[in-house]
Amino acid sequence: MSPETNLGVASKARLPLSGKNVLLVHPAWHSCGSHKVFVSQARAYRTLGATVTSLAVADQPGATEGSPWHRAYVAASQDLEADRRCFSGMPWHRLLDPRFLRAAGRWLHGNYAEMLVTTTRLATLPDGPALGLSLDLVHCNHFFCMPAALRLAGGAPVLLDTHDLQARQYDLRNRAGWSVPPVARYDDMLRVELDALRGADLLVHLNDEEAAAFRALLPEKRHALLYPAVEPIAPGPGGPDLVIVASANYANFLGLVWFLTEVLPLAPDIPVRIYGNVDQEFRMRAPSLLKRHASLFLGRVADLAAAYGNAAAVLLPTTEGHGISIKMIEALSCGAPLIATPCAFRGIAVDPAGLGNVTLASDAASFSAALRDAFAGRHAPAGDRAFAPTRHLYETHFAFEPFRRALLSLVAPLLAGSEQPTRAEA
Questions:
Q1: Which residues neighbour 157 within 8 Å (Cβ) at sequence distance 6 or greater?
Q2: Helix pair angle (146-153, 186-197), 10° resolution
Q3: Dist. CA 309–CA 325, nearest whole Å
Q4: Are β-strands 241-245 and 223-225 bridged in parallel, bridged antiparallel, or unpaired?
Q5: Which pTM was predicted?
């Protein structure tokens, strides 16, 4: 436990949220960018003096407390520090609920929005005694967790972190062609998402594009822009490796398919190390491509800082996706040279071309040329990465302390019952 989360009673009493009880509602996800955001939220509230209860809501039937999914989630998410941790999900017997059956039929056609909202709506939630407190604030993450947040709020204000306009992500996923025709329309999924958002007192957005979109779609709601805090990777000494970090989502899969099929053939003898559980996506969607490049995929590692620290360059071959990229922020923090597509820097009001240790490559030829240059210079002295331009950008926009201050500026008016500010940036 970090020193600032192990506060004594006397010192905690002097903090701005002392005596406040915050319920943090979020999907039961780990090993991904969203989880890193949940970790920072919990830490911020606790260091502000609040008592934090984490409620992880599973997004699949049968993942209830005590299930294998619950045990796996807890084992992989020990970095989320809260005063209480709860887990909930939809029990197996509710598979026959007419609401689930209707949603499952639409899920077959690719309507992920309705399926996720329904699964949360049918989850077995902890009651008041199980939570052990009366709530002052509910901080919900992702629109589909809102049914749980509203059921437990008991009159407390609800802040919703949107984590991108999710209907765009589902529309992208449907392009894989696995859904039964007629495929769910973007507008239908967006309608489900917006209906869930309307129940929140304040909508918080992680990136510029997302904030602009939701302000236009829901002008009657109160909005704020708050860049996420991501736990930094300590700048390492540098090393010979060319590193990619990617979790198991469809956008990461598409970027890596482009890298393996378009970029790497132009630099065939250059070894690359791919960390993260993105190999799960390849097992499901492109097993032959995974088999061809199996030696590059190293899976999830316990010490990701060592992987970044031994990198001659970090590669961000991002071709698709919406919202802000958490792995981009993580790469900024380590201070290593980056080779990236412009899409990797989506959602932030920063021109990456002005960063001295970033090479932008918009096509396979330029990306492979940058890759060859990085490989040729992999044994050159790395310099002090703590002072790299990308590290400075991280500390200015995505470090914990500015995030904590900005979060407090948003929740203090909610707790006081007054009007919200319209913008907060970290």
A1: 137, 138, 201, 202, 414, 415, 417
A2: 20
A3: 20
A4: unpaired
A5: 0.85
The two tokens of residue 13 are: 């009493």
Which phi and psi (to 5°) does residue 203 adopt? Answer: -105, 125
Which residues face 140 on adjacent strands? 25, 160
Residue 93, Cβ density class (10 Å: 0-12 exposed, 13-18 middle, ≥19 buried): exposed
Query: For residue 347, what pLDDT band results from cuts at 50, 70 and 90?
Result: confident
In the three-class reduction of DSSP (H, G, I as helix; E, B as strand; rest coil), residue 353 is classed as: helix
Local structure of 357: helix, strand or coil: coil
First to last CA, the chain: 24
287-308 residues labelled b (16+ CB within 10 A) or e (exposed)? eeebeebeebbeebeeebbebb
Q: What is the mean pLDDT of the chain?
A: 91
State the virtual CA torsion across 343, 348, 352, 355 in degrees, nearest 10: -150
How do residues 51-76 score in pLDDT, each as one tens digit?
999 999 999 999 999 999 999 999 99
CA dihedral 425, 323, 230, 148 (to 10 degrees): 90
Among 371, 179, 351, residue whose Cα is nearest residue 259: 371
Q: Which of 38, 247, 22, 58 is nearest to 161 (CA)?
A: 38
State the Cα–Cα distance between residues 20 and 303, nearest whole angstrom. 34
